[in-house]
Amino acid sequence: MSGRFNPDNPNHWPQPTDADMRRAAKDLSGAKLSYADLSGADLNNADLNHASLNHAILRGAILRNAILRGANLSDAYLDGAYLIDADLRGAILINANLRGANLIGAKLIDANLSRADLSGADLSGADLTGAEMPKGWRYEP
């Protein structure tokens, strides 16, 4: 009976490679992660297009080169997060906590940052074209 297919035997199923697992772990487009605690998570190069991350805790998370186009990050805690070269085009960051966040080179084109806390955030080289900024906000590098 060794030649017969047995769905309960894991040896009969194709095993994903490490590369497959890394790729799958980073594809979170459209994910519903509201209120999730992702503090310190390594989300480098993650695809979070249109993900729901409102009220999520992303303190110190590493989101370098992450794709967050159209993501909802309203009321999210991104203090100390690393968003270097992240793509946040059209993202909703209303009332988000971005204190001390590293947004060097981030694409914030048409993002909504109204009422966001950007105290101590580094926006060097960030593209803020069309972005809605907090009332009275001025960037001083």
| Biggest sheet record | none
User: Approximately how much beta-strand content do the residues carry?
Assistant: under 5%
Overall geometry: elongated
* Whole-angstrom Rg: 19 Å
Structural class: little secondary structure
At CATH's second level, what is the architecture of the domain at 29-123?
A: 3 Solenoid
Structure notes:
With 141 residues, the protein is largely without helices or strands. The protein has a domain of 95 residues: E3 ubiquitin-protein ligase SopA (Pectate Lyase C-like, 3 Solenoid). It contains one helix and no strands. The longest helix has 9 residues. The chain is elongated. The model has no long low-confidence stretch (mean pLDDT 87).
Explain the layout of strands and helices:
Layout: H1 18-26
Keywords:
141 residues; little secondary structure; Pectate Lyase C-like; 1 helix; 0% strand
What is the gist of this entry?
By secondary structure, the chain is largely without helices or strands. The protein has one helix at residues 18-26.
